[in-house]
Amino acid sequence: MSTTTNRSFWQDKTGVPGTIRETPIPSTLAQDEVLVKVRAWGLNPADAFLQDSPLPFIKYPLIPGQDVAGIVERVGPGPNSRRFKIGDRVLGYAMGEPSLGKPENGAFQDYVVLDHALAVKIPDSLPFAEAAVFPLCLATAGHALFGPKYLALPPPKASGAPRTGKSVLIWGGASGVGSNAIQLAKAAGFDVLATCSPRNFEYVLGLGADKVFDYSSATVVDDIVTEIDKSNCAGIFQAAGMKGDAVVPCCQISHRSRQKPFVACANAVPERAVPEGVEAKFVFGGEDGRGIYYDTSSQIFGGFLEEALRLGTYKVAPTPEVVATRGLEGIQEGLDVVRKGVSAKKIVVLAE
């Protein structure tokens, strides 16, 4: 590949594999943008979903993907982007939503343009494959926990916040989003209750969960209600689960609890799932019109994650599983793996 050519993985429509095409590398950057040469891509269930299912607010063709790690190639104008320099190792959350009119800014390409606030310098000791697991999982968890329309918790601190004496329930603690939600809630000073399968108990406890429940247990709802009502529950985050099925027990827990904690849901909320007296809301969008989760992510990435990674107080979670094929040619291979479902790991493709 020449120094003027970029390759991108385009999703032209639903129901077909992605297509790799050459496009020029952006010749100019807007205020406070950086250009990154990608070394690893992280793949999410949402990326596979966009291949399979049309959504009313998504327009094709588009370049999917949000998670990248790589090396800064160029720095745009503006005071904020100047904290980066050419050669910096970074991870980033690519904002390629078609709703923003930027379908070309998705992550699945050799060179990606990032907003400065969604790029984080990473330590030399952190491999690119591990850095690529963070962006979307962290952004989704952060919006659910700290977004003003959701749990609205106080912000996390890299060195750890004082304990609040309150608890948070993370349903799906072994998922990519749940793995980050546990760590963020702990860093904000909350006790964490989490659900997962028994084979992942040790993994979830290792991330900082204070107590873990088997989500498939016949008594899981009653068991969790008993536990959260021992103290003040700041809210419930349904971080993972099959479609609307995982929303139901979370809403039942809120309904049966004397506290009726708010339920933030990573899945769409079926109307039938919400009993009277329970407030449950799908975690999506942002408050300032700058893209999905931008308002919370721009604070967490620069204000928390960079320092936490430098201090070593934030763990790589979930563990990356690297597909055999490298480069953009490995993206479709990785999406096929994601589509089958993964547990306590993140599918990653290395660029070279």
Brief sketch in words of this structure:
This protein is α/β, with parallel strands linked by helices. It has helices spanning 45-52, 128-131, 135-146, 176-187, 201-206, 220-228, 247-256, 294-311, 329-340, and strands at 5-10, 19-24, 33-42, 67-75, 89-93, 111-115, 119-121, 166-171, 191-196, 211-214, 232-238, 263-265, 280-282, 319-322, 345-350. Helix content is 26%, strand content 24%.
Please describe what this structure looks like.
This protein has 352 residues and is of the alpha/beta class. The protein folds into two domains: 5-133 and 318-350, Medium-chain alcohol dehydrogenases, catalytic domain (Quinone Oxidoreductase, Chain A, domain 1), CATH 3.90.180; 139-282, NAD(P)-binding Rossmann-like Domain (Rossmann fold), CATH 3.40.50.720. 26% of the residues lie in helices and 24% in strands. It has nine helices and 15 strands. The protein has helices spanning 45-52, 128-131, 135-146, 176-187, 201-206, 220-228, 247-256, 294-311, 329-340, and strands at residues 5-10, 19-24, 33-42, 67-75, 89-93, 111-115, 119-121, 166-171, 191-196, 211-214, 232-238, 263-265, 280-282, 319-322, 345-350. Strands 3, 4, 5, 6, 7, 14 and 15 form a seven-stranded mixed beta sheet that branches. The chain has a six-stranded parallel beta sheet with strand order 10-9-8-11-12-13, sandwiched between helices. Strands 1-2 form a two-stranded antiparallel sheet. Helix 4 links the parallel strand 8 (166-171) and strand 9. It is globular, with a radius of gyration of 20 Å.
